[in-house]
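Morning!

This is the sequence you dropped in the shared folder:
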Amino acid sequence: MQAAQYRDERLPRYTSYPTAPHFSGAVDAGAYAGWLRGLDAGTAASLYLHVPFCRSMCWYCGCHTTVALRDGPIIDYLKALRGEIALVSGHLSAPLDVRHVHFGGGTPTILEPADFVGLVALLRQRFALHPDAEIAVEIDPRRLGPGMIAALAEAGVNRASLGVQSFDPDVQKAINRIQSVAQTAAVVEGLRGAGIAAVSFDLIYGLPRQTLRSCLDTVEQCLALRPDRFSIFGYAHVPEFKKHQRRIVTAELPDGEARHEQAEAMAGRLVAAGYVRIGLDHFARPEDAMARALSQGSLHRNFQGYTTDRCEALIGFGASAIGRLPQGYVQNEVVIGRYAEHVADNVLPTARGYRLTAEDRLRAELIERVMCDLSVDIDAVCARHRADRRILDASLRQLDQLAREGVVRFEGGRVFLPDEARLMVRKVASAFDAHLDEPQRQYSRAV
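The structure's back. Tokens below.
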């Protein structure tokens, strides 16, 4: 297989289609307000809340976040966040049926415990949160005390996603994130003791000074803590967009071949430990809902990665947050000050978005199925969308080339990736991307 030639190509992660660089100001606050009013009562929805603050900056970070050494900016932001929740819910004809809530960042647990409990209570007041809704929170184990753990449990949080990245002390120094195994284990124990049993770990390969041995050592140390799920991401080095990444020494980064070896070795160890490999970068225990969704062909993908969420509407709250409605995508102002100003003026803080076309919906389903299932029945998807297969002629030519190189295979109208080409899934998905004229710098490496 000649897939190695694509490893360094920069491609989208395809957590949406079209991807965020193609959003524009053509979709504004007025358009979003109309879209919200058009949602039917009882529409299945998910909520994402972005908290863009951390106490220190990890140099590998690619998120929209800023360092807050004092609480004032966080308190002001919380006021704006609560205001946006009121604005959005005020545009709805009836409360949405919410089964998934996700707090991301930054560090969502930077909020005061009482403030976090109050924020979730506001969501319950403004939306119809299902009694067994999944409420997930991203956590920095270095800064989670007993008070916040108790608040998470009181608020109904039932899934915690812990950032680990690497337990190698040398790697931790190179990325400005010192986090011990004991520290992480204490947080896991505290969460489970409070009744938050579902725990996920995030790891990264391709970090500076990272070796194959250190990757496997980190996996072994994590396995001892028995998380339900793992996410293993490739480090995206884009110092031209994230200035703090300039603190990372480029010469200390593993090359493409080493990154591939690290990813495959970590995956192999998790599979050997009994985890089901899911798509590009997720792993779950066989009894986990995500593993079941994979086997049933009902796995989905959104801005948080792979998910069991089948929602019709994803409502994003907070600076830079992205939402998806049946009509298309919306993104809030990225700059916290501008975001807060709009909310203070009782205006939805929408900065840009994208209105989906019929062709976009067709290609979005093709890409999602490839990313989730590593295969897609092209004819069946075209039939569901009442689309002429000829609209995909350019895509099919690219797939034919990938087939000659051993990256994909065809079985009638179905295309699939053999397991040894799994890490090339973003390359295969990109064949269906009509907006990707050329590789762009803001995207990460394919592997």
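Headline: The mean pLDDT is 94.

More detail when I'm at my desk.
O.
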